[in-house]
Amino acid sequence: MANLDLVALLLAFAVLLVSLTVHEMAHAWAADRLGDPTARRLGRLSLNPLVHVDLFGTVILPIVAFASNLPIIGWAKPVPVSLAALRDPRRDFMLIAAAGPASNLLQAVAASLLLHVVAGVPSLAGGTVAWVLRLALQINVLLALFNLVPIPPLDGGNVLGGLLPPRAADRYDGFIRPYGFLLLYGLLFTGVLNTIVFTPAFRLSRLLLP
Fold first, then answer.
1. Whether 24 is catalytic
2. What share of the chain is helix, strand, coil (3-state, %, to 5)?
3. For each of the chain's 210 residues, which pLDDT tens digit applies?
4. How many CB atoms neighbour CB 46 within 10 A?
5. Active-site residue, from 21, 24, 149, 160
6. S-S: 26 plus which of 77, 85, 86, 103, CB 3.0-4.6 Å?
7. pTM assigned to the model
8. Structural domain count of the chain
């Protein structure tokens, strides 16, 4: 039983690592396309997970979540962006922020399509491949919705900053960003995060499953 749990943990960690790597590379790719080569020059425009790993967000937190039977979630090192290099800093920074969650939604859809194919193959439908694909679908939906919470430093906070009028965006960012993680922990412990992220993610995952 312990061996099975270890295998499941390693597979879950691998799925999360791939999901986060694609997420961060999407930020780097969008920044590079919009005129900022900073991430590319630092080696972040890469599918090598080692350049994106954050010890706590990518390793410790997911392992604790898996061991506690909680939703598996995490984050990687943020991609550096130089606003001065962007052609339209407010619009482009918003697009760069949105690229991460968009990549997770695309990964979830890809996992869903593969699951529908696997469901038609009896030898695979109930096996490890199907389990990994379901996990990839669920993790990526969860990452997408979590990152869209409009609290900086999450991507949703940066997207909101691009949508608000400049003065309102500056006030919002200046007031919220210093307390972003405290606010997220508050939402988690009060159950609000469950309402706005985990429950919708569960329902969306159900819709995408075969």
1. yes
2. 75, 0, 25
3. 455 578 888 898 899 999 999 999 999 999 999 999 999 999 999 999 999 998 888 888 888 877 777 777 778 999 999 999 999 999 999 999 999 999 999 999 999 999 999 988 887 877 889 999 999 999 999 999 999 999 998 999 999 999 999 999 999 999 999 998 889 888 888 989 899 999 999 999 999 998
4. 16
5. 24
6. 103
7. 0.92
8. 1
